[in-house]
Design a protein that fits this description.
- The chain is of the alpha/beta class.
- The chain folds into three domains: about 20-230, NADH-ubiquinone oxidoreductase 51kDa subunit (Rossmann fold); about 240-320, Roll (Ubiquitin-like (UB roll)), CATH 3.10.20; about 325-415, de novo design (two linked rop proteins), CATH 1.20.1440.230.
- It has helices at about 20-25, 30-35, 40-50, 65-70, 95-100, 100-115, 130-145, 175-185, 195-200, 210-215, 220-225, 225-230, 265-270, 305-310, 325-340, 345-365, 370-385, 390-410, 415-430; strands spanning about 80-85, 120-125, 160-165, 205-210, 240-245, 255-260, 280-285, 290-295, 315-320.
- The longest helix has 23 residues, at about 390-410.
Length: about 425
């Protein structure tokens, strides 16, 4: 069992006018940058490395190591880009964080930019999140007026500008290189790697792309220290995490817990299953992560625990489904989403998601055959590991895991077409 924690990332969320600079400063806000600016960039990077902070956007790459990839010289401008696109179905942690506590992100941006010798930071927000964009812009203005942004921040000699950019609402722009292309004014499509963004990212200059929750964690690490941060979570996945819980639970929402918390514990916090209808299946990190069943209630939801059980932690978008939901129907709806959001750059994803959606739609309508199940898995095999970016891999996850755990439901959709086929075979044999 994971130990409960005093809220860290969400501690200001319920404060009156929590999004204002007055509320933020009243609760230890902008104290971390004063400490950070007295140290060297190398010391900040080392502290983040020691803390074990891992990327909260899904991949879980160690943040300190990622920051260390930025070259120490400044022959070219260095850029910090915040991925606030948040398009994964079921994910709702970054937008609430920016709505309730935007200054924690801004302070994190200042610390991270200083550590990587960046003087311009971009926050790329999903275009549909209009209220969030307005609130971020207001918070950035407040930070400029208070002297936390602009020239010579707090007389440290460090300069930083932050630009809030509204994306056009494309799921593919959650992929870091597609985001960079979109930020440059191009169509959002993933780039070929290498070169990686640390060498040639935004405007072909060294760039680090981090998730909102990752950067918002930085001020707490500066103030609390690496040992304090490691007291929460598990050895290889330390720290607090915001879990988004949606679906058939009594109290859906955001719950901050130590990494390694189980679904059983999360369900207790969320008031249990809605109307008492039993759990059937769930996703640990959004629809692009292989689904789990009720047999996985006690899987520790950290990067290693989810992987060992056959899935991924992803964005900790926990979608909960009860026994009234048809697995093939849910898989079909997710696949239609990926078909729509494919950028079309590579053939496996562009063509594969189209055919997967067609087959699943036919099956759900009751016109499928047993051969369709093998065809689905065959198409998945031709997409997995062969698409240009991870969208293709994410698109096949619900199908492969759905058939793995609930094959009988897919077979049941084919039953009514099974009898006519057997009759045809019998007639053919008699002839």
């Amino acid at each position: 069992m994971a130990d409960p924690i005093t809220p860290v990332l969400t501690k200001r969320w319920l404060s009156p006018n929590s999004w204002t600079i007055q509320s933020y400063e009243a609760l230890e806000g902008y104290t971390a940058i004063r400490k950070a600016l007295k140290g060297t960039p190398e010391q900040i990077v080392q502290l983040v490395k020691d803390s074990g902070l891992r990327g909260r956007g899904g991949a879980g790459f160690p943040a300190g190591i990622k920051w260390s990839f930025m070259p120490p010289n400044e022959d070219k401008p260095h850029y910090l880009v915040i991925n606030a696109d948040e398009g994964e179905p079921g994910t709702c942690k970054d937008i609430p964080l920016m709505m309730a506590d935007p200054h924690s992100l801004i302070e994190g941006c200042i610390i991270a930019s200083y550590a990587m010798r960046s003087h311009h930071c971009f926050i790329y927000v999903r275009g549909e999140a209009l209220h969030c964009i307005r609130r971020l812009n207001a918070a950035v203005r407040e930070a400029y007026e208070a002297g936390y942004l602009g020239k010579n921040i707090l007389d440290s000699g460090f300069d930083l500008d932050i630009t809030v950019h509204a994306g056009a609402g494309a799921y593919i722009c959650g992929e870091e290189t597609a985001l960079l292309d979109s930020l440059e004014g191009r169509r959002g499509q993933p780039r070929l790697k290498p070169p990686f963004p640390a060498a040639a990212g935004l405007y072909a200059a060294p760039t680090t792309v981090n998730n909102v929750e990752t950067i918002a964690s930085a001020p707490y690490i500066i103030n609390g220290g690496s040992d304090w941060f490691r007291q929460m979570g598990r050895e290889k996945s330390p720290g607090p995490k915001i879990y988004s819980i949606s679906g058939h639970v009594e109290k859906p929402g955001q719950y901050e817990c130590p990494l390694g918390t189980t679904l059983r514990e999360l369900l207790d916090m969320a008031g249990g299953m809605k109307d008492g209808v039993p759990l059937k299946f769930w996703t640990p990190g959004g629809s692009s992560t292989p689904m789990f069943t009720k047999e996985h209630l006690d899987v520790p939801l950290d990067f290693e625990g989810a992987a060992e059980a056959g899935s991924m932690l992803g964005t900790t978008a926990v979608q909960v489904f009860n026994e009234t939901v048809s697995v093939p129907w849910a898989v079909m709806k997710w696949t239609q989403f990926y078909e729509h959001e494919s950028c079309g750059k590579c053939t496996p994803c562009r063509e594969g998601t189209y055919w997967l959606a067609q087959i699943l739609e036919r099956m759900v309508e009751g016109n499928g055959t047993e051969e369709d199940i093998d065809t689905l898995l065959d198409v998945c095999d031709n997409i997995l590991g062969r698409s240009f970016c991870a969208l293709g891999d994410g698109a096949v996850s619900p199908i492969q895991s759905g058939i793995k755990y609930f094959r009988d439901e897919f077979l049941a959709l084919c039953e009514k077409n099974k009898a006519p086929k057997q009759e045809q075979e019998l007639v053919g044999a008699q002839a």
